[in-house]
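Input set for joint prediction.
Command: fold jointly, output tokens.
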Amino acid sequence: MHRPRFNRRDLLKTTALAAAGMASNHANTFGQCGSAKTTSFPDPPSEVATLYSKEYGHRRVTKIQDALRRANLDALLVSNRGLDYIGYVSNFHPYPLEPGMALVLADGPSTLFVNTYSSAHTRALLPIIWTDELMDVPRDQVSEGSNQNLADACIQKLRDRKLQRGRIGLAGDEIDWMLPFYFRDRLPDAKTADANRTLTEVIVVKDEVELALIRFAQRIIDEIAYPAFRENLRPGAMDRDVYARVLASMLERGANPATVLLFDAGPAGSGTWASGTSGRRLERSDIILSEPTPNIAGYQSEKMYTFALGREIPESQRNGSQVIYEAYQLLMSELKVGQELTPIIQKVESFIQSHGYPGNTVPVGHWIGTQNHEGPRFTVEGTRGWVLQSNMVMSWHPNVVVPGKVRTTCSTCVVLTEKGAEDLSTIKMEPIYYLP
Amino acid sequence: MPNQSTRRQFLGSVGGLIWGGLTTTGVIPILASPPRASATSIESDLFPAPPISVAAFNQRIARIRSQMRTDKLDCLMVSSVLNHAVRYLGFFDPELQGRASGSSQLVSVLLPLEGDPVLFLQTFTAAEYLRPRAEASSYVKDVRLVGGDNQKVLQLAADQIRSWRLDSGRLGLAGGEIDWAEHLFFSQLLPCLDHVEANSMLNRLRIIKDDEEIGLMRHSAAIGDSAMVEVERYMAPGVTDRELYARAMASMIAAGGEEDTFVLMGIGPNQNAMLMELIDGRTLSKGNVIVYETLPFYRLYNTELAVTFSLGPVSAMQKRAADACQAAYEAGVAVTKPGIPVSNVVDAALAAFQERGFPSFTHTPGHFIGLDNYEGPSLRSHDTILQKGMIFSFHPNLVIPGQVKQEICGILLVTDHGVENLSQYPPRGIRVV
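tokens >
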């Protein structure tokens, strides 16, 4: 395999390069559902091209440098495996065969360290990355995905920049906690600090370019995926077939290969959440939890639907869905700029518990945009001290899974404005979306 | 030797026999699936079953332990975030790793020389409702669900090593991603522990497939073949790359391809030196050369199939490149057999390629494949001797910006006396549509 610069999930980020792509109306197009077939749907917005410009990248890096100075840091090292904060500071999105690390100096040039797959890949990167320098580091001789050589190159760069006694922020929210051990060994006079909050405080507040991309992703959910669900979810339909058709409909209309579709079909009491497809035929009274997460130039939105095949569902499902719907309404009334986040999470949790449920089964929400889960987890500890700000984009999904009784969520993405929380979806929230 | 059937014969036979056609009529392709591994619990209908039988898994663990004894390891720790090394050790459910949300998390398996292994699973939420699924989908019965950051996974692993009284023993670290950093972590937590690199050991074991693994990869290859037939039928001027991408994806998923399944595509000729490019909405037109690659994951095992198509007449230079890639492929296949260094395959292919006037392949001509797309040592390795059961993807290729995009591919299984291509798609130079 000769992978391009990005993995399947991240490939979209470069879709911007071809923002001029046209959606086709080929007669045999199969992924489109009936209603979508007759609806014209626009190409991805011009902000895709903006995102890939050096000028935009310069503004992004400058924003991060300002944050570093405020945090009294000399440099920021961003490392990741599964998450991708590296992409936020460099526009390079690592994957297992092409790991990367990014170094941003508070005052000085920024550097991207990569193990590219080939020199052709390196050349292809140069026009789109935002950092001042690109260092293609020799690969590990045994393991394709090791990023040790990148850490070594980064440490050497810090020495070259006379920062061996500097204050180095480590971020990425994933493996950065391991790096202090390595720095202590290789750069003992440097002072390392956890810089995840410094970085994520920048990331979770979106600019106009980012908002345009997220809004377009939401349009794909509302105008492509949702009608495709309504057309294809039927008793007797094979789960894989429905999954394939909904996914294909989004891909055909401009969602990039990083697009994700969660799917979970079965009886109300199956006790599952996002369990995937299994070659099972849908049955009357099935509850289907499914979440399209289309990706546009690296930005995403999501909305998980609770569908019911017919109205003959257990009372326990109906009751649970109503409680979660009311929790959702409570939540929306609380989301205001200037409010602390922690009490809102506690209030929603208490509301669900007050109705006899154990609380949210999966986290009640998360910031969303460059990754599915941005920033700290929505727990009391994770959100302590965080205050809601304008242009934060958040996915909220009060939910409960009680084996034998109910699995349900009311889910949507919102952008915070001075007027409150704006639901990015135009699909009216319902406790359960009933299908024939 | 490559299958010499014509394009029409091939499309007729494969399409007719295997592919029912995923069309607007909703017909699902039918592929005979390998038998599922034996059910391990009443939840087996709800949760994914292990891809291999418990007998095959036990044999695998026995092989690993035998090698651990040879290497004087008391314990082996394998960690994965993005790659699939832990799947070899019994973690069979990527959904539990947060893969579906795009936020993969750390999974580690600790395998002592004696006693039961332990699976540490950092999850999106460590809620107990995940436990039945985690236990049903793995042969490792001691599953520890870990919430919070992945530091906790390693701390718990260190605690477990202490409880086994192995903290003065010898620990092999593998996974190929973050194990280099784990060394320093364990140095601090378990100062008497001797920890060594174990990736090379694990890689050598993984690249030899047992019969069940071969069966799964054969099925994966059939899914890829079917999708390629679908793509070839659909490919025409006016179709967009997005539609072409979506078509193969839908075909493979409907046929049982898993969430990791994906497609790569490059459309030329253009000035790009990359073989594969971004999906960007461009419309195919006459004269395009399309390198299309399907990569289906079937029950955790993947194969790949790359085919080069031309929409209309082929340029002289593209034809030369196609002939050279085919000659290289056939030369490599001709020498493949047990007992030779794998580097001989590449050397033979390269010699044939150079005879036709091209100095070198643009990208690597192949790699071992299985649970990961790239597994084990490089095909240029002189000390890796081919053995029965090894499977590698072999794909001579060439890109000349502005003139040529070309790749030809087979999934080669080393057999008793030679080689078998798991793909039924004819490995031909270029297919004119």
